[in-house]
Amino acid sequence: MSSLAENRVVALAAAADAGENIEARSEALRLLEAVLFAAAEPLDEPTLAKRLPEGTDVKTALAELQDDYALRGVNLVRIAGKWTFRTAKDLSWLMTRESVEPRKLSRAAIETLAIIAYHQPVTRTEIEDIRGVATSKGTLDVLLETGWIRPRGRRKTPGRPLTFGTTEGFLSQFGLEALGDLPGLEELKGAGLLDSRLPSGFNMPMPSDDPALREDEDPLEPGELELALVPPVPPEEPGEAGGPEGAA
């Protein structure tokens, strides 16, 4: 009898512990849900860990929460290594009118954006070599304004030209978790975006998410990033007030 009683006590204690673990896990999920819901931008796992109870398994909690929301109108998704809630893809049409601002890009801008995405870090001259035509500064300015590309550094070559790469905004806009999710050669052929009769030996570069500068890049000087994003000031016309010819 004593053995049965002892076993019963052990079983009850185990059940109580399990209940406490379930309750603690449920509370962690509620906290995680609240933090993600209130965040103005996607959050990475270290940031989430700082806001959850000590000892919380963040990866497991995120996986559970993602499963909980898998069939709902809002899904938990990872964008550029960070987590956020987004409208389910099959319901995105509901928000089209309210949230999507049409932005028409020229063919030159689309080609330039694709080259930067696949070949980054890349300079304006290198973009022109790949496209086979000159790229106007206006094209790069438009892409900078979208927030999809950014100046990375300067190439260690004569003239020290700027190098460009994509941003987290680019990944978010196109629903990519990482640059490695960009379509490959066969996918582009299948979508009719590349001629099926490509030269032998033609291949696509493997895009890299590494934000670190490469050996052939120098960092931007302080203030250079802001300067690169400021539109040029048009020169004054001869005869304007304050100019040599406009003086009384």
Put the structure in a nutshell.
By secondary structure, this protein is α+β, with helices and mostly antiparallel strands.
Attribute tags:
single chain; 248 residues; alpha+beta; Arc Repressor Mutant, subunit A; 2 domains; four-stranded antiparallel sheet; two-stranded antiparallel ribbon; 10 helices; 6 strands; 11% strand; disordered C terminus
Summarize the structure in words.
The protein contains 10 helices and 6 strands; from the N terminus they run αααββααβααββααβα. It has helices at residues 2-38, 45-51, 58-68, 96-99, 107-119, 124-131, 137-146, 168-173, 185-190, 224-229, and strands at residues 74-79, 82-87, 122-123, 149-155, 162-166, 217-218. The chain has a 4-stranded antiparallel beta sheet. The longest helix is centred in the N-terminal third of the chain and has 37 residues, at 2-38. It is globular and about 60 Å long. It starts with a helix and ends in a 19-residue tail after the last helix. 15% of the residues are buried.
